[in-house]
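Predict fold of 23S rRNA (Uracil(1939)-C(5))-methyltransferase RlmD; 463 aa.
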Amino acid sequence: MPVKKRKTYELDIIDLAFGGKGLAKPDGFPVFVDRCVPGDRVFVKIFKKKKSWAEGRLINIVNPSPLRQEARCEYNRFCGGCKWQQLPYERQLEYKKRHVVESLAHIGRLKDVRVMDVVPSDYIYEYRNKMEFSCSSMRWLMPEELADDSIKKGFGIGLHVPGTFDKVIDIHNCHIMPALGNDILETIRAFVAESGLAAYHLRKHEGFWRFVMLRHSVARDQWMVNLVTSEENSDVIKALSKQLVKKFSQISCIVNNITDARSGVSTGKEEILIHGEDHLIEKLGGYQFKISANSFFQTNTRACEKLYTKVSEYAGLDGSQTVLDLYSGTGTIPIWLSGQAKQIYGIEIVHSAVVDARENVSLNGIDNCTFLEGDIKDVFKQVPEKPDVIIIDPPRVGMHKDVVGHVLAHSPGKIVYVSCNPATLARDLEMLASRYAVLEVTPVDMFPHTYHIESVALLVKKN
Ligand SMILES: C[S@@+](CC[C@H](N)C(=O)[O-])C[C@H]1O[C@@H](n2cnc3c(N)ncnc32)[C@H](O)[C@@H]1O
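Predicted 3D structure, encoded as tokens:
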């Protein structure tokens, strides 16, 4: 075997593989290494060894690839957020397209599908409209911080080291959210540090401060601050709110979500409105959307408009069709298409998302969108009309096989499949390919500097 666990090796990175990791092949044996660029010569320590592949940790770069660029973010070597910053954006798009093509060919056995160039994100920094930072009483120290005695070693607010639940990097500057978010976070950090209340201990499950969620409305340039705590303490939360509102006129909403759940989920069991309204208003195209603290909304607003434009184009509606939108979330796709269809039905499992969808429909004065609540595999039968077009936008795991069965049984003339995971996209398209021809797939980049890629596929019924 060419490599052994816990040993270090000097390797040449020859490609990028699944999950965005660099690939080296000493004597033909695949070794995956995170945060590498093809053309890098790197020093690597093997930490996982399987029969047919191994995984190594980057120790240092012996010879950087000519492709490599300086990452803008100082936490880039450790943070789980955006690991591709060292790769120029055009190259990121090339690799993302290739990932879609290869997933379709290898997982879905769909070799001849036309895959278009990736639709890029106009903003490659400051593009995320929502960030969720964890509070920790035991923050993880970067190597240079370990040597600095002036650094407070306890409390931190930030993002996790990938694959860990208890290692939080104290992030002072995150480049993928709008810059003001960092100033807001800094004010919160200073307040929390002086508050006399402990940040959450992620192993002992003790402490008051749990998460800070920041949300931004591009349309109104307004911010929501969601302070997630383990219990209620209105004096402290109101004091922080007062400071924030005084300093940042852009904050239009502050809520306090309270949760004693042990899991790292920032959704509160109870929400208390502290300042302003309990939601933001965002716009997509000409439509307005109400976004509450716990609602799902696509995280890159401008790229979402590009995604939905592609959905409209593929749906090719002329006002006469009935559309069924599976996995409809807060109703954004039905509302986006409402002016182009006779009637649209959405199915969504999360109650609060369905409530938001219905509110969003009335907010926009729309009368041809109806939402059904429940698991699609159970609720599908309740759709009162046979759809001409089905839109499918499932979570990363893709479609349940019973849902595939329902879709095939209804066999609409056209299917538009939106996916955030090329692997499950390929698997599901293969299942649909018995009755449908996959005419075209367009990847849309919603997540610059990460290997994630959204895709829209157009399927038409075979004769
Ligand atoms: C990727 S989101 C898409 C949301 C929406 N189309 C959008 O663009 O904002 C997937 C949605 O599917 C919902 N979902 C997941 N499993 C479901 C199921 N079995 N039945 C119905 N909805 C489900 C989730 O709650 C989530 O809102």
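The first strand starts at residue 8 and ends at 16.
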